[in-house]
Model the fold of this input.
Amino acid sequence: MHDDPAAPEVPEWLHGSWRRAWIRRGATRASDVAVHYVQTPRMFADLRVLDARPRVGATSFADATDADLSALAEQWGFAGFATADGDVVTWHHELDFQPDEPGEVDVGRVERVGNAMLEHALDGAYTELWWRVASGDGRYFAAERRAGGRLEGLLVVAGDAFMYVRDRAVPLPEAKSLRELVDDPNRGRAAKISYLDCEISAGRARGGARPWAIERSTLPWREGCALDPPFSVRAGALTMREGWVAVTSTFALEDLALLSDVDGGN
Done:
């Protein structure tokens, strides 16, 4: 489990908010996927959306077309906890937007290069260049919601950057991809929506157009909306929403109070 005190944490320089510049496989280098990644001392979340994702005009699943559903299936994201063995980091996926691939382990060798990072596949299959958007300045917060040991919700914050994750109500059936499930003519619309109803959202808790503004999401109609964080600070105490537990907090309580004040004190 992520709270095993014996499990080594990732290096401190890896904490913060990151964006991927490119991935290179062999002689081919690609930068057509917008990747958001927030790493706290233990918990992390990652969102990957094609730059060329078709415009989804729906305001909810209720008015989403079949084409919209297919477009939403072409996204990736995952969340969980990370551990390290020297410069080799393993990202343990407890929640995945796409179906699990049996036996797949998300592990790579990380190399710090100034304010950037190179991630190398252990077998040399790929190299990724990441830019650190913000270090978080030592201010990190992570909260989770679990049921029966299953991760149902996660909020990770590094400085002003946040990522929020909410799992779908039921696990995905076995499949090669989410697109395979969503384009299957033998599956009903309700089932397809249940497969896609998994939110991974990235944004800024402060400094954006509004507090907790969602900038990118697996649910496009959430973009531009404000997240209601699952915690508040009242009377000098941190209070979590029912079912949520704070697992990491290096923020001063007064700074958390500012973050939790979604109305900006108005």
Remarks:
- The chain has one domain: 12-260.
- The chain has a mean pLDDT of 92.
- The first strand starts at residue 16 and ends at 25.
- Residues 12-260 form a domain with the Lipocalin fold (CATH 2.40.128.280).
